[in-house]
Amino acid sequence: MDDQPWVRTAPARAARELIVCGVFDTIVRTYARREVSGAEQLDGPAIFVANHCSHVDTPVLLRALPGPWRRRTAVAAAADYFYTRRSVGAAVSLAFCTVPLVRKGRGGEAGGGGGTAALGPLLADGWSLAVFAEGTRSRDGRVGRLHTGGAVLAAAHGLPIVPVHIDGTRAAMPIGRSWMVRPESGGRFARHDIRVRFGAPIEVSPEDDRFEVMERVRLFMAECGAETTPDPKLAARRAAATGAAERAAGRAAGGSATR
Description:
This protein has a 7-stranded mixed beta sheet, sandwiched between helices. It is of the alpha/beta class. The protein is globular, with a radius of gyration of 20 Å. The protein is 42% helix and 15% strand. This is Lysophospholipid acyltransferase family protein. Residues 230-259 are annotated as: Disordered. InterPro entries: Plipid/glycerol_acylTrfase (IPR002123).
């Protein structure tokens, strides 16, 4: 199933406000208390790069966005998961303004690796994009390796990356559950605590190393208290750069000594 441009029309946006702020917000509030911080830092369209633990992450993130951003933010969604059935794909597209992305295998690159032709015009038209950069939901709560597609998109379209850390959704709706659950203790009306924290925008240029950009996102999530996964490719690139610099310095020193 391809991208559905109709979900970004004015009638669809109005319907989505009712779905996200009415239906889903009511459900989430029944099972959880939500705390949002950092949204005051937003300034214009952006690539929102968030961690991913639960299916409830998407409505929670969209509800946490101020209205002007929420109404013009699309969400990157795995084509192989949400778009295999036309009816499901259409429903998800309407509810969350999703854009299908083809992953490079299960949990593969999200937000640029598979890509979609719809992203260029969408971002050029002033829309923001939310990307779950791990490519799939975390099974253990740890933030997995962050793929670099968000950085590639940000550089290509002159947009900042806004890192977003979502905490508490894994307990509220674990993988394998089709509905939110109550805390195991605390009574029949107990609620989970869900926290959404927006980081300061990270400016990205085409000259920036995409792995270094995503490292800044990882460090933000670590500052939020998350257990994160450093990218081994970044470590290898840094080691190679250090080795090259040391060899160059050695050659320069040897050349000076022979003069």
